[in-house]
Amino acid sequence: MGRAACPLVVSEDAVPGVRVARFVRPDNLADLDDNGESITATPLYREFRRAALDGLAPGQAVVVNLGLVEVLPSAFFRLLIQVDADVTAAGGRLLLCCLTATGRKAFDIMGGGRTFPGRVRESEAKAVYDAKQPA
Amino acid sequence: MDIGLSPSGGDGDDRAAWKKLCNLQRRILPQRPPEVPGYKLCLAYRPAFVVTGDYHDFFARPDGRTAAFLGDGSGHGPAASMLMAIMRTILRTHPGLHREPGRTLADAGRMFHDEIPPDLFMTGVYLVFGEDGWVSWAAAGHHPPVWVARSGTPAPVDFTVIGPVLGFDPGGDYPTVRSRLEPGDRAVVFTDGLYEARNQAGEPFSRHRIWQYLQVTMDDPLEEVVAGLVGTVKAHLWGAEFEDDFTVLAVERADPPA
Q1: 0.90 surpassed by complex ipTM
Q2: Is B12 a domain residue?
Q3: What is the CATH number of the domain that holds B36?
Q4: Which of A27, B88, B159, B186 is the most buried (most CB within 10 A)?
Q5: Which residue in B118, B140, B207 is closest to A111 by CB distance?
């Protein structure tokens, strides 16, 4: 019996209205090769989309934790753009949090602050999370 | 001047076809910068695999000044080279686009958006070389030019002026920045394939090392600086292959005639 593949993205619906998706690996380049096809043809897209969208209710926020991602190439930026569009089309909202210093610089260079105005700090993401917690 | 760097890759029966593609791209990409009064320019580029998704070009503008564009199609190699070809067509066949840099990027980006699949994009910097060392530029999802004074002092880089990548947001806004080079000062533009080049331990060359290199080589001729920078990055790789295309364009304000 073979072992299950190590996940690339894990997610949880800890509280109603907020889903947290976490990238597991620092370098996802090998799973971002699209062979000239759309970014939607990559293994990372399929897994990220599943983690972000499966069972997502309209109005739900998807907080994407990038705290472990060290390599943020343009293909990863394409991935975020695509899944952001998918989540928006599903009536949800994508928020990014916990960019590393390296990731943040790459993100800023690609104009990510304008493309993803929903970027939040970890504390802000947690505030969203806490606000949904029952008193 | 250009630095002759051979492409890598292309094995087996496909090799002849790759070679033709490579040759064609070399014919449509400038192999050396034009002469620009008041400036020295130096260029180097290298495909990661046969052809490059980076795009560099120079334009004689209607106002008599020279402009340069340096861009990076998402991905690399043959697939990304389609993006550079599309952007080249846009910039070369629409002379009316060549206005102030921010507007040029906004208009070119809107046209680019209409021509490409929605998950692809290009980053880039558009520069116009003006009189008395004034250079105006705008950036789209791309590292701004690095400015180094003749003394070796680098100017702080402002990342807040970077607009969105080209092709994603058709309504993107791109601020135009004007900066002045004094005689001997330099500005260097590059694609991420240079500073993200990783050695076998996974360590990128980094922007910080580019900074350091440019600071300590201000007394060297510009073409030696560019060749040395490429050589330094290759040495950093320690036998690993470049994973991405790279392009470097260095500009120096020439000393005024005596």
Answers
A1: no
A2: no
A3: 3.60.40.10
A4: B186
A5: B140
Q: Is B64 exposed, middle or buried (0-12, 13-18, 19+ CB in 10 A)?
A: exposed
Pairing mode of beta strands B134-140, B177-180: antiparallel
Is residue B29 domain-resident?
yes
Domain around B178: 2-6+24-253
User: Class assignment of domain A9-131?
Assistant: alpha beta
**pTM value > 0.80:** yes
Antiparallel, parallel or unpaired: β B66-73 and B54-60: antiparallel
Q: Please, which residues 41-70 of chain A have a Cβ atom closer than 8 Å to chain B?
A: none
What is the layout of strands, in order, in the sheet containing B66-73?
B54-60, B66-73, B122-129, B134-140, B177-180
Contact (Cβ atoms closer than 8 angstroms) between residue A119 and residue A84: no
Helix, strand, coil percent values for chain A (each to nearest 5): 40, 20, 40
pLDDT, tens only, B146-181: 999 999 998 988 888 999 999 988 898 999 999 999
